[in-house]
Amino acid sequence: MIYTNSLEGISANMLQGFFVDWPSPPNPQTHLRLLKNSSKIILALDEQTNEVIGFITAISDGVLSAYIPLLEVLPPYKNKGIGKELVSRMLQELDDIYMIDLCCDDDLVPYYEHFGMTKTNGMVYRNYKMQSGK
To answer: Which whole-number Å values give the CA distances from 28 to 4, 31, 44, 63, 134, in the listed order?
Structure first.
């Protein structure tokens, strides 16, 4: 397993199978574009297959706040500590930021509490017709 915060050598072909259970998922080209436009990224790569098997993104003002919108690990690689490593590395990358926020489903609250995060109220708006990023 290799972890990197660089997109050097990463192509859309290496980003297959993500956004599981999304009704209208972004295609791999859009996925690559969103990675490029994020403030920070960390990728997990399988050394054997040279595929991206997990990723996390952050968007930040670089001063006080950051938001972690996406964390995903491909289904065959889940429950192997990859997601935990991605979150830990991202929190380390954002160590100089005052507030780091993310939204998650209730069943994931205990997962993020292990990283020292606390549950809070939040509001979201979703424009589902734009879910694929097109």
So the answer is: 18, 5, 16, 31, 12
